[in-house]
Structures are given as structure tokens and as C-alpha cells.
Amino acid sequence: MSFSTLGLDAELLSVLDTLGYQTPTPIQQAAIPEVLAGHDVMAGAQTGTGKTAAFALPLIQRHLAREESEKVIRVLVLTPTRELAQQVHQSFVKYSQGLGLNAVVAYGGASINPQIDALNEGCDVLVATPGRLLELAIKQLIDLSTVETLILDEADRMLDMGFIIDIERILKRLPETRQTLFFSATFNDEVFALSKTILKQPKLIEVAERNATAAKVEQRIYEVDNKRKAGLVAYLIGSKNWQQVLIFTRTKQAVDDLTKELGKDGISAAAVHGDKSQGARDRGLEEFKTGQVRALVATDVAARGLDIEQLQYVINYELPYNAEDYIHRIGRTGRAGKEGLAVSLVSPKEKYLLEDIEKLTGEHFVPQWMEGFEPNLMVQEEQASSKRKPSKKALRAKALGQSGGGKPKSGKPRRR
Ligand code: AMP
């Protein structure tokens, strides 16, 4: 199948040609005709499958077909994070190059004035995070009454991050009659509940199994004690000569500590987390993308919206508390059909988190040890032998010559 069979105009086809896009991805094949036809859409697709183009291309096409050229906000894209907002904005710019469409991005944590200036120059498509959008709307710096299409990107994440009240406030400012599109890598019950209230007869598009992890990503689990994790990360990067590695931790402190540790081991790393200024975060991402540093250490803030064409390696220094974040993290590699490797370092205390991930993804992982970084065997053996110690009741029964009568325990090893 080619893009031309989806009903896209020659001008867009020529842009896609320049970008080297030859075949529409499955989400693009399914969503582009529905969006073009004006339907509401609820689409779930694996991360990195080309979902931004799936909504951007048909909306740019609609812009081209419009006779009046007045610049008013017709498309509003809401994203949970600044990084994703920047990414989606860049995609609109990329897909509409030379076609006279003005896309503007607005997010919190950065000065509002340049964003207002950009809006005043004329805006067809506004990509924004919910908080900054509300600020602009409440201060009457934007008019949302002209919006024709609303897109909630990563809708589940927006709900996870507690944006529901902001979203409801924004919805009140939008015209009742509009097209609404939900795009998300994962769907949960909350998202379905929200969709029922704001989508009208949506077309459901699911191109991959729900909550499936990115197809071409090899997932490897190393069992390792917490205090040896930093050493193992440095060893993996150094000994395998990995050049561009994205590393996730759960806390900001862990980001800072690991970044320092890697530095001591001669591995240049940038740190990205919520306490860093927007400028510092942008700089960190840029240094990573351009290869000035080998590693980017980040909290889940960076898990969405980060799109690096060739990113091959993701390391989960700590497993996330929320199993869905695992899917988003490892989806930063293996993008657009490329291969990737996701390594997770799991301490004995984190095994329950691994089980949550197994339940969500339907995968069964077999953890392995890295030579030289084996978990403390003494502790493991002690734990195992204390489990084997007979109870007082069993000892008394034995002394009285009773068999105990219960079912014999299966000799099967416990699944790890
Ligand atoms: P997304 O899922 O929208 O973040 O896109 C993931 C990556 O795939 C981005 O780097 C896009 O530029 C790229 N991409 C999107 N659609 C196509 C396509 N049809 N052919 C090749 N690359 C694509």
C-alpha cells in the first residue's frame, strides 16, 4: 500500500517523498481515511508506530483544502508533557514544510511571552500541555471557539498525571461540534470512561494488541543487587561500546547520582528530570541527540515524546512503579520498525514490579545474571534455606510420628 491510496494530495505526497516515507504504517493506513472523513477516532497503537503522522497528515490536508486563509486555531493537540508537545509540534512543521501552515507550541516551565508572540503571528495548529493552555485561555490570550479538531495525545498518560480537571475545563471552552481524536499507546478503563463522555460514535482503531510492547525490541532482564547497578550500567556501556543509551530511573536523586557515577567511569551523560529548568532539559536532550554525550539519564518525564531515529539501547536502572511506564520506556527504542535492546536491572526487592509488567504485557521473562555482577549468593541462599526450615508444628508432628496429612508440596521451582 502507498500513501496515495489513502487519499492524500500530491503536495503532501511530495513532502513524504522528501522525508523518505514510502509505506504508511498500519496506524496510518487505518486512521488517515477516518480522520479525513471527519470521524471521531479512538486509536491505540504501539509506541513509535507513526501515530503522529496518522493524525497530522489528514489535518494538514484539510488545511490545504480550505479556501479562506484566515489564521485561527482550528486544530488543538493536547499532550501530557512538554517533551511530547515539542515532538508533535516538530512533526507538524516537518509534515507541512512549504505548505503555509502555522503550528505553534505552548507549554509550562518556559517563558510565556515568546509563545504569545508566536500565537500573535497566526496559528492554525496549537500543540500544548493542559496547564499552559488553560493559562493562555483564562488570560484571554487565545480564542478556542474556532477549534474544529481536538486531539488528546497519550490520553491515558494525561489521566495518570491528574490532568482530568484541566481537560474538563478546556473542553468547556471548545465548540460542542468538533472532531475529537484520542491517540494513545495504552488504553485503560479510565480512558474508555472519558472517551464515552467526549467522543461521538468514534471509530475504534487498534492496530496492535492492546498494551503490547514494541515488536522489535529485545528485552533482557539482569538480576543484580541495588548497590552494584551503577557499576553494571557502566560495564554494559563501556564493554559493549554502546554509543547512545537512554537510562531510566524512578527518582530525580537517582538520576543525579547515576549521572555522576557514570562521569567517574568516563562515560559522558546528561541528566533530565522535573527539577531541571526547561533550558537545561532541552540542552540535555540536544547533547544526547547530537552525540555530545553517550548517555541520557532520565525519570519517566522523558519517557514520552522523545524520538531519536537511531536509538538502540534503553536501560531500566530501576523498574517503574507503574507497569505501563515500562512499555513507554522501552518504546523509545525500536522505533518505526528498527531493532532495539531494552535491558532492565532488577534487584531482589523489585521482583514484584517485574511480575506486574509480565501481567500487563503477557510476557514471561527469564532473568539472567551478568558475570561479575551476580546478586549476593550468600543472602539468596540464606533466604532459601530459611524458607526450607521446618516449622515448629511440623517438628512436633514428626516427634509424635504423625505424617502431617497435607498435600505434598510440588518440587517445581518457583517462577522468578
Ligand atoms: P511516532 O510514533 O509518530 O512518534 O513516529 C515514530 C517515528 O517514525 C518518527 O521518527 C517518524 O518520523 C517515523 N515515521 C512515521 N511514519 C513513517 C513512515 N510511514 N515511514 C517511515 N518512518 C515513519
Automatic annotation (TrEMBL):
GO terms for cellular component: cytosol
Keywords: ATP-binding, Cytoplasm, Helicase, Hydrolase, Nucleotide-binding
Record has Cytoplasm as a keyword: yes
Matches recorded under PROSITE patterns: DEAD_ATP_HELICASE, HELICASE_ATP_BIND_1, HELICASE_CTER, Q_MOTIF
Domain Helicase ATP-binding: 32-205
Region (Disordered): 380-416
Protein's GO biological process: response to temperature stimulus; ribosome assembly
Reaction(s) the record says it catalyses: ATP + H2O = ADP + phosphate + H(+)
Entry-linked InterPro entries: DEAD/DEAH_box_helicase_dom, DEAD/DEAH_RhlB, DEAD_box_RNA_helicase, Helicase_ATP-bd, Helicase_C-like, P-loop_NTPase, RNA-helicase_DEAD-box_CS, RNA_helicase_DEAD_Q_motif
The UniProt record lists the keyword Cytoplasm: yes
Top EC class for this record: hydrolase
Residue ranges of domain DEAD-box RNA helicase Q in the record: 1-29
EC number: 3.6.4.13
Residue ranges annotated as motif Q motif: 1-29
Name recorded for this polypeptide: DEAD-box ATP-dependent RNA helicase RhpA
Organism of this sequence: Marinomonas aquimarina
Gene name linked to the record: rhlE_4
